[in-house]
Specification:
The complex is a heterodimer of chains A (645) and B (179). Chain A has 645 residues and is an alpha+beta fold. Chain A has helices at residues 2-28, 33-62, 69-74, 81-86, 92-113, 119-143, 168-196, 201-232, 243-268, 272-295, 308-332, 347-379, 387-407, 418-424, 426-442, 448-464, 478-503, 607-628, 633-639; strands at residues 505-511, 516-519, 522-533, 537-547, 554-556, 559-564, 567-572, 574-578, 581-591, 595-604. A 5-stranded mixed sheet of chain B has the order 5-4-3-6-7. Chain B has a two-stranded antiparallel sheet with strand order 1-2. Chain B is elongated and about 85 Å long. The chains are: A alpha+beta (645), B alpha/beta (179).
């Protein structure tokens, strides 16, 4: 019954979405204010129904109801409790339902909380949200029904993908989805504003908290995902430029650009068309990214099965939504009055450079991600685009972007003088040069990107706290703190990336128990190897004892796990975190002669990558608080300094 | 820029999106060819010398191909089920007068010979490619694959997967072309 109830709830939610779109559009007409009042409860009811449906699916997975096709295919009674719940979104249908649930909740939140937007724009926004939701409800109901039953229930399910059996699954996809789908609000805002031609500071101020919120979650989701891949895959890398990763990076790049341009619109009423464009692009990237991955269109290059009906359905949705929004943009934006102009040397100017660089990086990542598809379509040639392309193209631009980031916050709005800006960033600039000289002296022979990365990280860390210079810290508004913390996070993360790529030490050996190998500053003794039976897998566990100098020994126990259902082997790395880096160990296959493959890495300051990511998200959260709390605005507005999204 | 130009430029994002859409659509509807074509077709065989899987027989060396005779090079393995499927067709080709050289990929000679005892042995010589190094050098990504090599030792054609009864005529035509 639960499955049928979940399906019914989904149908009702779809009907409510249709009603929401209808009422919202009706409210656009003159005399439609009553309809607008009716549309809010409809949006909330839709969210409640979708949530009910999602809860039903979680329940079915939790109870392992094998008469439900999805449960039988992707779970089993032997799956540990945590993954019987998290497993709900560890498959196509379930993750789509999660996606739609978050979309419905976002729509309800707009309907409930949004008070700043002009009424007509709000009506159009809610209508747009309803139309988007309707399409994805249709997708779920017609081609990805998670509640389909089997004629006869099997005795046992197919089990759950061992690679996903990790606590990371419980929070990584939901966080990322909140980010992806949160951007739908910005998209709907943009569509709403295009419909009513009302693009201005009020619109930007209303949109900004939504963008910030989505961006914080997106940042957290990407950071967490990176760390998850780092320790779970056992390859020692933290970013692989895989299509799935790019799918999350592209919306983030667009959202980061949007975050900055929306500030120009809110503060200076400039960049009107551009901000609307970015709002459309950000969510479009979420959709394109999610569905390139979800539909298997991209992974089909690697010969995975693809249901063409599903892919076609998604494409139609994308064509309607993105094509529709872009067509609306082409038709309407010229009739939106032009915003304020500004001097090239100004805060706005720096933000435009930020936006251009982010957009170019986004374009490069998009081209790299789609190129294999294009090549196969046009020439029939099969190829894949890997890290060398992305690092060589996006890397240098990202460094320039970081350098601009150092100067932007100390520039004045409207107009500034180069000489004065130079004086304000003199200390960070000197610091960069000193760091560069030190790196050249102490660690000769570094590659150019890590070298510049290290030097810039030092300068940018100093520059990012410059906006606090000579300020009363207690009266500094939250959003200035937010900007400072986020920019500092970028510097911290950059330092981690540069250090990891410059100084990582790697040892790959086939060792017998009792032997000692060295990696970086550590001597690692291969003490023992033992079988270790566990719930739904059998592990072989190596015991490694690492010592550095006279320090206390660290015991590391990496495992090689063999799962029974489905049969698959995964490497479980063991990582020791110290203040100055991580010792990363993996045990691999046995080698004839009683030896085992050991992969050991010493990664100095690698943790800074994720610490920086967390700081960036924290900065976003501080800004969000600053933008949502009752303002202490008068002071800030007059200083004209350091105001940021 | 005139207002007119700007108005036209505003449609560019839509155009860009439609191009991407078309691309994805073509990727979606085009039947997927998952086989990997060898880059070596049209090029001489890579240099190799494999010891024979049959005890006491001469090795299979790339140098011996440039004697004016067209040959088939068939990559097989005892652990490969589709290889069983194509054995009758290989026998048919041998009867038609085609010389077939075998390359046993990732196999033990004893296993290869037992396989041939069960399914018939169409091969002139058999090279023991236990590490599949030669298979990879030829540009083969799987087992079975069959290559037509002309009298100068140049690879002229590639057949991926088992040779089915309906493929025999094509292979004979390719052999004739290579003469």
């Amino acid at each position: 019954m639960i499955a049928e109830a979940g399906l019914a709830a989904l149908w009702i939610a779809a009907a409510l979405a249709a009603l929401q779109a209808f009422l919202g559009l009706g409210a656009l007409r003159s005399g439609g204010e009553q309809l607008l009042r009716a549309v809010r409860p409809v949006a909330v009811a839709q969210a409640v129904m979708t949530l009910t449906s999602f809860a039903a699916l979680v329940w079915l997975f939790w109870r392992t109801d094998l008469s439900v096709k999805l449960v039988a295919e992707d779970s089993a009674t032997t799956v540990p409790a945590l993954y019987r719940i998290a497993g709900t979104w560890g498959n196509h249908e379930g993750s789509m339902l999660l996606w739609v649930t978050i979309l419905a909740i976002a729509g309800a939140a707009v309907a409930l909380l949004e008070r700043r937007l002009p009424e007509r724009t709000l009506a159009a926004t809610i209508a747009a949200q309803g139309v988007i939701a309707l399409g994805f409800f249709a997708f779920l109901l017609f081609s990805s029904n998670p509640f389909a039953r089997l004629e006869t229930a099997p005795a046992e399910g197919n089990g759950f993908n061992p690679l996903l059996q990790d606590p990371g699954l419980a929070f990584h996809p939901p966080t990322l989805y909140v980010g992806y789908v949160g951007l739908s609000v910005a998209f709907s805002f943009a569509v709403g504003a295009l419909l009513t031609r009302d693009v201005g500071p009020a619109f930007a101020k209303a949109m900004r908290p939504w963008v910030l919120g989505a961006w914080v979650f997106l940042t957290l989701g990407i950071t967490a995902g990176s760390y998850w891949a780092y320790y779970e895959l056992g390859w020692g890398g933290w970013w692989f430029w895989d299509p799935t990763e790019n799918a999350s990076l592209m919306p983030w790049l667009a959202a980061t650009a949007l975050l900055h341009s929306v500030t120009v619109l809110a503060t200076r009423d400039g960049l009107r068309a551009w901000t609307v464009m970015l709002a459309v692009v950000a969510f479009s990237m979420s959709m394109v990214g999610t569905f390139l991955v979800r539909s298997g269109i991209l992974t089909s290059v690697h010969a995975f099965a693809l249901d063409p009906r599903r892919g076609a359905f998604i494409l139609v949705l994308l064509a309607l939504y993105i094509g529709g929004a872009l067509a609306l943009f082409g038709a309407r934006i010229a009739t939106v009055a032009e915003g304020n102009r500004f001097d090239p040397v100004s805060r706005e100017g720096a933000l435009v450079v930020n936006n251009l660089l982010l957009s170019v990086i986004l374009g490069l990542v998009l081209i790299g991600t789609l190129y294999p598809l294009a090549a196969e379509s046009l020439t029939g040639e099969k190829l894949s685009v890997g890290p060398p392309y992305f690092n060589a193209t996006a890397g240098p631009l990202a460094l320039i972007l970081v350098a601009v980031m150092a100067a932007g916050p100390v520039m004045r709005w409207r107009r500034d003088e180069l000489a004065k800006v130079a004086r304000r960033i003199a200390i960070p600039a000197v610091l960069t040069i000193v760091a560069l000289a030190l790196a050249l002296l102490l660690a000769p022979g570094l590659h150019v990107l890590p070298l510049l990365g290290l030097a810039l990280a030092a300068g940018v860390a100093a520059a990012s706290v410059a906006p606090l210079w000579k300020r009363n810290l207690r009266r500094t508004p939250f959003f200035t703190w937010g900007m400072v913390v986020a920019h500092l996070g970028v510097a911290v993360s950059l330092a981690g990336m540069a250090s990891e790529s410059a100084f990582t030490k790697e040892t790959l050996v086939a060792a017998r128990p009792g032997e000692t190998v060295t990696v970086g500053p550590y001597a690692v003794r291969f003490a023992a190897i033992d079988p270790l039976p566990s719930g739904n897998y059998t592990a072989v566990q190596a015991t490694l004892i690492a010592t550095r100098g006279a320090g206390a020994p660290i015991i590391l126990q990496p495992q090689q796990r063999t799962f029974d259902n489905p049969p698959q082997t995964t490497s479980e790395s063991a990582i020791a975190t110290r203040w100055d880096g991580q010792l990363y160990t993996v045990v691999g296959e046995p080698v004839p002669g009683g030896r085992w493959q050991l992969r050991l890495w010493w990664k100095p300051f690698v943790t800074l990558i994720w610490a920086g990511g967390a700081l960036i998200a924290l900065g976003g959260a501080l800004s969000l608080i600053g933008r949502s709390l009752p303002r202490r605005r008068a002071i800030v507005e007059s200083s004209g300094y350091a105001r940021f999204g | 820029m005139s207002l007119r130009t700007i108005r036209i430029l505003l449609w560019l994002p839509l155009v860009g999106f439609l191009i991407v859409l078309g691309l994805v659509l073509s990727g979606l509807i085009k039947p997927h060819d998952t086989s990997v074509r060898s880059q070596m077709v049209g090029k001489p065989l890579p240099a190799f010398a494999l010891r024979s899987a049959r005890p006491g027989q001469p090795p299979l060396a790339s140098a011996s191909f440039a004697d004016g005779k067209v040959r088939l090079v068939n990559i097989f393995a005892s652990w490969c089920v589709p290889c069983v499927v194509e054995m009758p067709q290989l026998a048919q080709l041998k009867q038609a007068g085609v010389v077939i050289e075998g390359i046993a990929s990732r196999d033990k000679p004893a296993d290869s010979l037992a396989f041939l005892q069960r399914n018939g042995d169409p091969y002139d010589r058999i090279g023991d490619d236990s590490t599949s190094a030669v298979q990879i050098a030829i540009g083969s990504s799987g087992v079975p694959e069959t290559y037509v090599v002309d009298g100068k030792g140049i690879i002229r054609a590639q057949h991926i997967g088992p040779i089915q009864p309906q493929d025999v005529a094509d292979i004979l035509a390719a052999v004739k072309d290579a003469r």
